[in-house]
Design brief:
The complex is a heterodimer. Helix content of chain A is 0%, strand content 50%. Chain A is mainly β. Chain A starts with a strand and ends with a strand. By secondary structure, chain B is an all-beta fold. Chain B has no helices and 12 strands. In chain B, the strands form 3 sheets. In chain B, strands 2, 5, 6, 10, 11 and 12 form a 6-stranded mixed sheet that branches. In chain B, strands 3-9-8-7 form a 4-stranded antiparallel sheet, with no helix packed on it. In chain B, strands 1-4 form a two-stranded antiparallel sheet. Classes of the chains: A mainly beta, B mainly beta. The interface between A and B is medium-sized, with 25 and 24 residues.
Chain lengths: 113, 118
Amino acid sequence: NAGVMQNPRHLVRRRGQEARLRCSPMKGHSHVYWYRQLPEEGLKFMVYLQKENIIDESGMPKERFSAEFPKEGPSILRIQQVVRGDSAAYFCASSPNLDQPQHFGDGTRLSIL
Amino acid sequence: AQTVTQSQPEMSVQEAETVTLSCTYDTSESDYYLFWYKQPPSRQMILVIRQEAYKQQNATENRFSVNFQKAAKSFSLKISDSQLGDAAMYFCAYRSTYTQGGSEKLVFGKGTKLTVNP
């Protein structure tokens, strides 16, 4: 059973461009979470989704950031008009239900030039 | 809102010895989950151990065990017979058991960097 798959592993963007980060949860997992890790910091929650629904986006900036988890395909975290402060590692996690622990992908390291 | 505090930014241990990493948390809830995650230089987040707050027995996973003190809101991780491969960042995390929207997220501490000396 493959783990949580994130791609790309590394993403470089110039200021003002768009960044799209993808996450395929583990097979059978319908709960997806996105976290951001700034240098020397712990992970901070951004958004929690179930298939086609955003359940909790309380940790996501109101502007420029959006997330989706369509019926078919991976979950996407989209950052529009990126700025230097968006440079971080973005982790996706999934779980089959709320009683099971979250399993993490290897993360996407986003660098903004 | 819940908070998790790891007061030791860095710790070191000699190979084969035992080390304890500290974690305290703040919550008004009576039932919740606590976790320790390991993040090696490869940046993977690996679940080390999990504890349900309603269970009085401390969780153990091979060389890893916890000391869960609910009244003190303390959740320390003990690593016995430390190995070079244990070197990593260790994060303590909290999660509510309530299923209302917004409570399923993990709340992480800032981490403790563990160095294992040969």
